[in-house]
Design a protein that fits this description.
Strand 6 and strand 7 form a beta hairpin. The strands form 5 sheets. Strands 1-14-15-19-18 form a 5-stranded antiparallel sheet, with no helix packed on it. Strands 3-2-11-6-7 form a 5-stranded mixed sheet. Strands 4, 5, 8, 9 and 10 form a 5-stranded antiparallel sheet that branches. The protein folds into 2 domains: about 5-60 and about 265-375, Immunoglobulin-like (Sandwich); about 65-245, Alpha-Beta Complex (Sulfite Oxidase, Chain A, domain 2), CATH 3.90.420.10. It is globular and about 70 Å long. It has helices at about 5-10, 15-20, 95-100, 135-145, 180-185, 235-240, 355; strands at about 35, 85, 95, 105-115, 125-135, 150-165, 170-180, 190-195, 195-200, 210, 225-230, 245-250, 255-260, 270-275, 280-290, 290-300, 305, 310, 320-325, 330-340, 370-375. With about 375 residues, the chain is mainly beta.
Length: about 375
């Protein structure tokens, strides 16, 4: 449904929309809209991170999109670059970027988030939403012919670093893996384009994996090799780093410690900013990590109120933009918190819930985030 159809079916006229200081759509900002900054806003970062106080586009521009690397950003000779597909396959492949671009093109709008986002109070902008394009991964794996005993698919990047284990030093490429079943999902892309432009070097050019529904760590940049193996891969970024450690209580009260590799995204939402037109206030935010059914907002610990989800943009793997009109706030400091509810009825957990407090690592932080704002 386009914007005109929405207006017709909702009974709202274009004239009425233009006369109202508010509209159902979050973006672009309305004339005369003034930002009321959160008092707990993190300080500006020297890194490229999303500034939630300036959150005003569904798609994050390439030059505003965060990037994280662990072994630096490798220099790659595009004239000689090839993607190797090897391991337990019948037909090993060596593909140039031209070979890959000649294959069927597929696009997905996907909100990519670092699994460490919100792991620290000042690290909140490692997230962005982009239109990614490339060729599906699954047909390439099937063309290579996975042998019967292949169970794990490892994605190696060109970035290399030195690691030490048990006094043994080794140079290794950044790598992450998926089960064969996960790797064959038809949404996974070998991506060479971002927001209609060639994939930027900082974001993984010439080729990266885009795995919608997974945290950014799984979406390996600067791809060098895809290898099929018959054992689980336990490299640093699967088995030692990017591992969530959680204390779980059994019915008899015994504590059991569970360690799991960071994988699929968690249900999450955030109040991004508060704005004002004259004496009318509005809270904006986003929700992501799972198919979103509802977003609710609580002000000053009060009853949960249903927010309006922007109907303009609707993509399966993209964040949902929402707002709540805040009528007649009193002067002074207030708290604002949101929670997302997915289509299966799961509710984003409170920050003080056992599920969140039992987690002893900063990865996959997705508890409700309480923001503070002062109304003058």
């Amino acid at each position: 449904m386009d914007r005109r159809d929405f207006l017709r079916h909702s009974g709202m006229t274009l004239t009425g929309l233009l006369l109202s200081p508010w509209a159902v759509y979050a973006f672009p900002s309305r004339e005369g809209e003034v930002l009321i900054p959160f008092t707990d806003q993190p300080p500006p970062s020297e890194r490229v991170l999303l500034d939630w106080s300036k959150f005003d586009t569904f798609i994050t521009p390439n030059d505003k999109f965060f990037n994280v690397s662990h072994y630096g950003k490798p220099e790659i000779d595009l004239t000689t670059w090839k993607l190797e597909v090897s391991g337990l396959v019948e037909n090993p492949l060596m593909l140039t970027i031209e070979d890959i671009k000649a294959r069927p093109r597929q696009e997905v709008t996907f909100t990519l988030e670092c699994s460490g986002n919100h792991g620290f109070p000042t690290f909140t902008g490692a997230i962005g939403n982009a239109r990614w394009a490339g060729t599906p991964l699954a047909p390439i794996l099937k063309e290579a012919g996975i042998k019967e005993n292949g169970i794990e698919v490892i994605f190696f990047g060109h970035d290399v670093g030195e690691e030490e284990r048990r006094k043994v030093k080794m140079r290794q490429n950044f790598a992450r893996s998926m089960s064969l079943e996960d790797a064959l999902e038809d949404t996974n892309l070998l991506c060479y384009e971002m927001n209609g432009e060639p994939l930027p070097h900082a974001n993984g050019a010439p080729l990266r994996l885009i795995a919608p529904g997974w945290y950014g760590i799984a979406c390996v940049k600067w791809l060098k090799r895809i290898e099929v193996r018959n054992t689980r891969y336990m490299g640093r970024f699967m088995g030692r780093d990017y591992v969530t450690m959680r204390e779980e209580k059994r019915p008899d009260g015994e504590s059991v410690w569970m360690e799991t590799s960071v994988g699929r995204t968690q249900l999450k939402s955030l109040a991004a900013k508060v704005t004002r037109i004259s004496d009318q206030y509005r809270i904006y935010g986003a929700a992501w990590g799972a198919p979103i059914a509802t977003v609710e907002v609580s002000i000053d610990g009060g009853a949960w109120q249903k927010a309006t989800i922007d109907p303009e943009e609707d993509a399966e793997f993209a964040w949902k933009i929402w707002h709540l009109d805040w009528n007649g706030p009193t002067k002074g400091e207030h708290t604002v918190v949101s929670r997302a509810i997915d289509t299966k009825g799961n509710i984003q957990p409170a920050a003080d819930s056992d599920y969140i407090t039992g987690k002893h690592t900063y990865w996959e932080s997705h508890g409700q985030v309480v923001r503070k704002v002062n109304i003058e």
